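Long-time lurker, first post. I've been practising inverse folding by hand and with some scripts of my own, and I keep getting stuck on stretches where the C-alpha cells seem ambiguous. Below is the full C-alpha cell string for one chain I'm working on. Before anyone asks, I'm not after the true native sequence, just a reasonable design that respects the backbone. If someone could post their per-position residues I'd love to compare against what I wrote down in my notebook.
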C-alpha cells in the first residue's frame, strides 16, 4: 500500500495561483501533486496525459471559464468522463468566472463549442491535403467536446461542485476527505497548525501535536520544514522515515538538506531512494541531477534532467537546470537557449533568464533574437538601453540605435 496517494492537478494557466496555493498547503504534509497545465503549448499526447491520470489515484480539476473554453483542457476532461468511476476519483473545484449554475452561461459555453466546430469545418474545405489529417484530428476533438460539454457541466451542477474559495476557507478539509489518506482527522488538524502565522505559536503547537501523536510521520516532516539548520532538518526527516519507510518527500527533502551540507554523495543516495519508491518523482530527479553535476558527473546530470522532462514537460526547473548544464558544462548554447525559452514559456511573466538567453543568442550569431529578448526585460536600465543601441547599430538599424541611446541617456539622467 502506498503511504501517499498520487493526485493529479489539472488547471489552465490563468489559475496557476490557485494551483500553487493547493500545492503549498499539502506540501506541509509531504503530499505532492502531479501538476499539468493543459492549455500551454508543449508536445504531449493524450496518451501520455491519460497515462499520468491512470497512474494517479485521484484527479483535482480547477474549472474556470478559460478551462471550459480550452480545447486541450476540455478534451481531456471529457476523456476522463469515460471512466465509469470518474466521480469517485475526480474532484472539480470551481473558479468564480465559471458560472456553471447559470443555465444561460452553460448555453453560451455549449454554443461557443458548436461555433468553433462549424467554423473550423467550414475553413477545412480549402485546406491543402497535406494538412488535412491534422485538421481532421482537431475537428474530431472539438466535435467530441461539443457533444459532451453539456453533460460535463451538468455533472458539476449535480455534484454541487464546491468553489476553490470554499475549500480554501475550510483549510482544504473537504479535499482531505476526498483524498484517501490515512488519519484524515490528524491531517486536517496538522494543516490548521501549519496555517498558524506566528512561528513561535506554530512550533509550540507542532511539538505538542508530536507529543500526542508520536507515530504520525507527517508531523515530523512539518517540524523538519520549520528548521533553518540542515542538521536539525535531517534529524526530523530521519524520524519521519523511521515511521514511514516509503515517505518519498521525506527522502527527497532529506537529500536537499544533505546537499546544503555539501554531502552530495549521501544526497544522491536519498534521491535514489525516493525514486525507487516513485520513479516519476521529477523533483528528486532534478535535484539528483544537480548534485551529480556538482560532482562532475555531467553525463549523469544530463540524463536525470532529460528523464525529468520526459516525465513532466511542465516542470520549469528541469528545463532551467538542463539549460545551465548545457551552457556552462557542455558549451551547447543553442540547446541552452531552447531550454531557457521553454522554462520562461512555462513560467509566464518570468523574465529572469531573458538577459542570459540574449547573451547566448549573441554567441550563436542571432543578434536580432538577442534584441528581442532584451527589449522584453522590465524595467529597462540605462545600461541595457545602451547595449540594445549598440546591437541595433551592428545590424544596421540606425533609427532603432538612435532611439535606445536617447532613452538610455534619459534614464541615466533620471536614475543615475
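-- Answer (accepted) --
I ran through it position by position. Result:
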Amino acid at each position: 500500500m502506498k503511504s501517499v496517494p498520487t493526485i493529479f492537478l489539472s488547471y489552465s494557466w490563468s489559475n496557476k495561483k490557485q494551483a500553487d496555493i493547493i500545492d503549498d498547503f499539502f506540501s506541509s504534509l509531504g503530499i505532492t501533486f502531479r501538476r499539468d497545465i493543459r492549455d500551454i503549448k508543449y508536445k504531449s499526447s493524450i496518451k501520455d496525459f491519460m497515462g499520468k491520470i491512470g497512474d494517479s489515484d485521484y484527479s483535482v480539476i480547477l474549472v474556470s471559464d478559460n478551462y471550459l473554453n480550452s480545447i486541450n483542457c476540455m478534451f481531456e476532461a471529457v476523456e476522463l468522463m469515460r471512466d465509469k468511476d470518474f466521480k469517485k476519483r475526480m474532484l472539480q473545484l470551481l473558479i468564480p468566472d465559471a458560472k456553471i449554475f447559470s443555465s444561460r452561461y452553460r448555453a453560451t459555453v455549449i454554443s461557443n463549442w458548436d461555433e468553433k466546430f462549424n467554423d473550423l469545418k467550414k475553413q477545412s474545405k480549402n485546406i491543402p491535403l497535406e494538412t488535412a489529417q491534422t485538421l481532421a484530428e482537431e475537428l474530431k476533438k472539438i466535435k467530441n467536446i461539443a457533444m459532451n460539454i453539456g453533460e460535463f457541466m451538468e455533472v458539476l451542477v449535480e455534484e454541487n461542485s464546491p468553489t476553490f474559495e470554499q475549500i480554501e476557507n475550510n483549510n482544504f478539509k473537504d479535499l482531505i476527505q476526498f483524498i484517501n489518506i490515512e488519519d484524515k482527522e490528524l491531517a486536517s488538524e496538522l494543516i490548521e497548525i501549519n496555517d498558524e502565522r506566528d512561528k513561535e505559536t506554530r512550533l509550540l503547537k507542532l511539538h505538542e501535536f508530536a507529543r500526542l501523536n508520536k507515530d504520525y510521520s507527517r508531523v515530523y516532516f512539518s517540524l523538519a520544514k520549520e528548521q533553518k539548520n540542515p542538521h536539525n532538518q535531517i534529524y526530523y526527516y530521519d524520524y519521519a522515515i523511521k515511521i514511514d519507510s516509503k515517505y518519498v518527500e521525506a527522502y527527497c527533502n532529506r537529500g536537499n538538506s544533505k546537499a546544503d551540507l555539501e554531502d552530495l554523495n549521501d544526497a544522491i543516495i536519498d534521491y535514489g531512494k525516493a525514486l525507487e519508491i516513485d520513479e516519476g518523482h521529477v523533483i528528486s530527479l532534478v535535484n539528483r541531477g544537480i548534485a551529480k553535476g556538482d560532482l562532475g558527473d555531467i553525463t549523469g546530470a544530463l540524463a536525470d534532467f532529460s528523464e525529468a522532462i520526459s516525465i513532466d514537460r511542465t516542470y520549469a526547473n528541469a528545463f532551467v537546470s538542463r539549460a545551465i548544464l548545457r551552457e556552462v558544462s557542455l558549451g551547447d548554447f543553442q540547446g541552452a537557449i531552447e531550454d531557457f525559452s521553454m522554462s520562461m514559456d512555462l513560467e509566464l511573466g518570468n523574465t529572469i533568464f531573458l538577459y542570459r538567453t540574449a547573451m547566448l543568442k549573441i554567441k550563436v550569431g542571432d543578434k536580432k533574437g538577442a534584441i528581442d529578448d532584451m527589449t522584453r526585460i522590465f524595467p529597462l536600465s540605462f545600461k541595457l538601453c545602451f547595449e540594445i543601441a549598440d546591437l541595433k547599430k551592428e545590424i544596421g538599424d540606425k533609427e532603432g540605435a538612435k532611439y535606445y541611446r536617447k532613452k538610455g541617456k534619459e534614464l541615466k539622467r533620471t536614475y543615475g
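A couple of notes from the structure itself: Residues 38-47 have pLDDT under 50 and may be disordered. The two ends are 63 Å apart (CA to CA). Happy to go over any region you disagree with.
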